Amino acid sequence: MEQYEKVEKIGEGTYGVVYKARDRVTNQTIALKKIRLEQEDEGVPSTAIREISLLKEMQHRNIVRLQDVVHSEKRLYLVFEYLDLDLKKHMDSSPDFAKDHRQIKVVTLWYRAPEILLGSRQYSTPVDVWSVGCIFAEMVNQRPLFPGDSEIDEIFKIFGTMGTPNEDTWPGVNSLPDFKSTFPRWTPKDLATVVPNLEPAGIDLLSSMLCLDPSRRITARNALEHEYFKDIRFVV
């Protein structure tokens, strides 16, 4: 770690702390993500392994670049290219977006997929598609789509818009640990009224991303091929 000099802390999340730092060899400004390992009896957390392996595969101008991985004592450091703004900071810097709602500590709850909220122990990439759908709607509406202040409030906000699921709309939902038969029975709202500034193709894409049943949720690959993006040139 002698090669890198920490400048300031710029963020902190569930899995670690991010610093603005300087590469002493190249004098380049970089972002240094420190991942805690003290609680891990079996080495590097699986979440870190997944992040590292995926980022090593992804070489794209729109994906942050992982430059190095350093293991030091009980710390794992990921060295990234430094960016002045992430999406949240970009949205907060825009006068069109209200800022006060993002001061709440439970902000990541707003993008959590329903299967996780209901206690599923098995989940995969559809949870990320759900999160992207929530962000998509927030960018259009200029406010969060499901700003719950607790897990049960988050569940009720989701069901209040998307409808309370049942075995017909989401096979297996009754067996999830935190699903209750006593939940209020909401009917789904028309997403065109929830996100009124989104064109019909966008509404179709959004509804596919926010499908409650993760097995029926659109995949990232199919989302990119959706009609909504037909006029956009992708850089590869």
Structural topology:
Blueprint: E1 4-12, E2 16-23, E3 29-36, H1 46-57, E4 66-72, E5 75-81, H2 87-93, H3 114-117, H4 126-141, H5 151-162, H6 191-194, H7 200-209, H8 220-224
Antiparallel strand pairs: 1-2, 2-3, 3-5, 4-5
In short:
By secondary structure, this protein is of the alpha+beta class. Helices cover 30% and strands 17% of the residues.
Keywords:
single chain, 236 residues, alpha+beta, five-stranded antiparallel sheet, 8 helices, 5 strands
- Percent helix: 25-40%
Strands, total number: 5
End-to-end distance: 33 Å
Mean pLDDT: 87
Describe this structure in words.
The protein is of the alpha+beta class. Helices cover 30% and strands 17% of the residues. It has a five-stranded antiparallel sheet, covered by helices on one side. Strand 2 and strand 3 (29-36) form a beta hairpin. It is globular, with a radius of gyration of 20 Å.
